[in-house]
Design goal:
about 675 residues, alpha/beta, 22 helices, about 50% helix, elongated
Length: about 675
Amino acid sequence: MRKVSVLLFLAWVSFLFYAGIALFTSGFLLTRLELTNRSSCQEPPGPGPLSGEHLGKPGTCWIAPRFSRVVLVLIDALRFDFAQPQRLPTSVEPPVPFLGKLGSLQRLLETQPHHARLYRSLVDPPTTTMQRLKALTTGSLPTFIDAGSNFASHAIVEDNLIKQLNDAGKRVVFMGDDTWKDLFPGAFSQAFFFSSFNVRDLHTVDHGILEHLYSTMDSSEWDVLIAHFLGVDHCGHKHGPQHPEMAKKLSQMDQVIQGLVERLENDTLLVVAGDHGMTMTGDHGGDSELEVSAALFVYSPTALFASVPPEEPEVIPQISLVPTLALLLGLPIPFGNIGEVMAELFSGGKDAQPLSSALAQASALHINAQQVSRFLHTYSAATQDLHMKELHQLQHLFSKASADYQRLLKDPLGTEAALKTVTAELQQFLRGARALCLESWARFSLSFLLLHLLAAGSPVTTPGPFTVPWRAVSAWALMATQTFYSTGHQPVFPAIHWHAAFVGFPEGHGSSTWLPALLVGANTFASHLLFAVGCPLLLLWPFLCERQGPKKRRHLPGQETETKVRPEEEEEDGEEPLMEMRLRDAPQHFNAALLQLGLKYLFVLGIQILACALAASILRRHLMVWKVFAPKFIFEALGFIVSSVGLLLGIALVMRVDGAVSSWFRQLVLSQQR
């Protein structure tokens, strides 16, 4: 068997596994269609006429703007308990370093209860920065597999807040994390980008923002100011949340918030938000309670809320911020938003009449519901992802709520109970729409799952001598897995060793994203690569273990003719060459043995990924599917790809060495014959 044929056949078998993995991935991981439709002031957001007391006035879009300017301070990895007001100690336990460091938030909540509000923002996994930025600007749900593009973000094509701000002629100034540069190229009137990947650097990005933040605030050359701080997130990665450095970094953020509050004007809204949380070790990416719990703080110099804050902060989905900011600024809500507007921000303040306040909140909810209804109608017409029965039920609920709302507008003196009923119906529709989209985009394609299971479960074998037993190949593959765990790795995203990206590059990589990604990948899958490259050595191990001394030659099938043409060997009393030199008698069997060894190793690896695929398929509705089974499958799939490539490289290397030894052996024989 020719060497090239062996490599091509193994590559073809690997490709079959790749195809099976791709089929399973397309049927298992979250998927959805990204629509490119845009919302505009010229088009109503949904069925039925727009309503509202300010509709038709100059400068009014779907609703009259409440604020002219917004300051959005995004503190990366600002976990909710970092901002939670500190209560009086009830035990003698040692204080946690991060508690109570954002004291300015607590003071504003206590002294100006109608101006400020703290929320627990519930984040949809995966809790990686790029996916959270997509959610915070589009109001939609990023897919699970998008986590892989966190190293190299791509421009957002869906309708988003930044696009709507640009269309409205708003001047958007940004400073901070350079991820925004890739997501929104050319969208900012002024920008100060800083590299975000060097997690060992706690201060460069934050200090760079502070150099421009207050001077920009004092100028009049902006309408929306976005500052994305990274120090808290980097401190978590480097030291963890329990480290004293976290207390210092949060204290710095507290001073930033105080400085911004002092400079706010009456027409400006301040929003302080975390894009995600972090684990007890400072990592993120999964869906644990600490990772999906972020802080959201809203403040205005003018009274914004009709009531005082509740004792326990309200829990809201993170994407609720998108429609809320859009309507507060008088902008159209992004077309693909499925978030529910934070209605209490439209109550009109503490001096508003209760009935007028409730009607204003219902108006904002109705506009939001119209926009979501339009999106569901457009999305269902473009693809069959949504469950039609539930979709029809939601549309019926919206039609009823919209009709009830229109009747209230015609009779402003309607009872408060009727207004509460309409508000509850609109909220039920919005929450049902979000649940429907989440469930539908997590729906599994059983046909694709079955195709993968059939492809991965079909072993490929070839006849011929096999010198390496199954137990040795299986043990070798299990040793690769054991080494993966023994070196501190786990098949979950928060356990990835991100510090490996800076081995040899303590000062960072500049703007490069592929090099750190390559270093992290090499660290994670080093055991898979090393054992796969070394797998062909199993073929030579039995020869290396032989004892020195003469042995009777064992004639291989079809070898009789070869021995007849070499009479000099018959004079050696049937002694058999030792170790790997024995393969010179039948080089074609060496190539066949390499092929069978490679097939056995691929088959063992295929059994592993097949087991992960079966577990993910059977438990696809399990509560832990996105925490355990989906990451495990992704790690196994990537490990298989790395192992198969390493196996091909290892076999190619052994064949190259075998070719060199064969050439030397032929020259040696020719020299002896002379």
